[in-house]
Write a structure and sequence with these properties.
TIM Barrel, alpha/beta, five-stranded parallel beta sheet, 12 helices, seven-stranded mixed beta sheet, Urease, subunit C, domain 1, 19 strands
Length: about 400
Amino acid sequence: MARIVFYGGKVFDGTMAPIADADLVIEDGRIVEVGPSLDGDEGVDCTGATLLPGLFDCHTHVMFSTLDWVEELVRPFSFMFYDAERNLAKTLATGITTVRDASGADAGVRKAVDEGLIPGPRMQISVTMLSQTGGHADGLLRSGVNLEVGWPGMPSGIVDGPDAVRRKVREMIRAGADVIKVATSGGVLSPDDDPRHPHFRPDELEEMVAEAAAAGIWVMAHAQGAEGIKNAVRAGVRSIDHGIYLDDEGIELMLERGTWLVPTLVAPRGVLEAADAGVSIPASSVEKARGVIEAHRDAVRRAIEAGVRVAMGTDSPVAAHGANLRELAQMVECGMDLQASLVATTSSAAELLGLDDELGTLHPGTCADLVVLDGDALEVATLRERVRQVWKDGVLVAENGKVLR
């Protein structure tokens, strides 16, 4: 294949190394050279632009687009798969070439992307979130309405007790899970539980982690309350997602165990923005979202200050698909260095997902996932508007906000 040289711009290599003038060459879907005055068979003029590694979102839900429960209840079942195609395209166009889907997408959606049937970022999937009865992902409401919809390849995540947990983890792995997702606390959008309350007992969580480890995969935890966070960390989960009421003891445990934090700072704000726009959201959920914002910011600020490892995630569509990069400015407002926020969505995110040998940096030998960004990469508040091109595996897949088929 042709050698393609990206010339005339700056390079952010995915680390804390200085952003510097350099050219970059790709061939056969790989980066082969980075340095000054390189040549190639074809050229991409990057004058006035910065090259970044393909970006990551470590917490998204590509099968869903709205928080409106009424709308979800009246949609035909199959609509969600076509909706996912649109959401994946929006995500790819924003420069995100890899996502970790935190429940909802099945192995067929991942396969459709892998085989090029639909454009989208490469995916790690959790299939569905494990929840105790009455927990954050239990769709059976007090009204008697059950919001949980299963289909072949999407087993129920409701489970109680260590023995049942062992089998349930195996069911998720059988369905194609790359990671196991568990709710170790209540949540904001589930109307009848409290985000501060811990869910699952330590023996259940330890069983999940052990069974996942036996299959060579990790566990990610929806964890908002302090006790649910600490139970998850002690059990050995890979990442704490949300971390709203993370306390100092939890921070020390995360530092001791090397646990990652995926803050999703845009999520509570997304709930309030949707409610203000007239979306039908239970009043209890709106009040919970309003009540957690400052605690969430304070927890993330203290975690960043202490040196907890952070990777970017958004909880889209709680904040809209395609607006994912708003999260970087939120992390900066919580005290993260500007360049560190870029690292959190490139090399750090790749490390969290176990993909750092292949993705997340612009070094010779890694996959040619690239973002051509107009202007200064450190102006993180306006990243989305300045994405000129997106390349995945050495192929131009999006340009000026539009996905190329």
